[in-house]
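Sample entry (143 residues):
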Amino acid sequence: MAEKTTNLFDKLNSVQGTRELNNYIKSLENESISPTFAGYISYIVSSKDLSRSEVISKSLIERTYGYQIFNGTKKAGRDKIIALCVAADMSLDEVQRGLEIAKEGILYPRDARDSLIIFAVNNHYSVHKLNNLLAEQSFDALS
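Predicted structure, serialized as tokens:
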């Protein structure tokens, strides 16, 4: 069974020296493999009874590229990840988790563009409506 992240932080914070650090790193091999964004978005889309094609279409991402992201053959950038998450009508927590898994910066409320995106996610905007909001405020669109 995977250990809780808080327990892992506690263990890591108590490490004193490279020998203990190496033992800690070795212990991570027993942890489950880190999820990928492709796996995460596929799981969310499936759990919401949506189709990949529907989400890709709503994301305004080119169809072939969207399928490559879902298949894990292409690594999506931050804006494409956000577009897919918005198209799948994810909650803010789900969007933030997707960005974390993809190792992209989470949405930051002190950033004006990110604040607009947070507002749009919380209000279930479509990607098209979000892009219009961004344009109205002179920011780049997602896709």
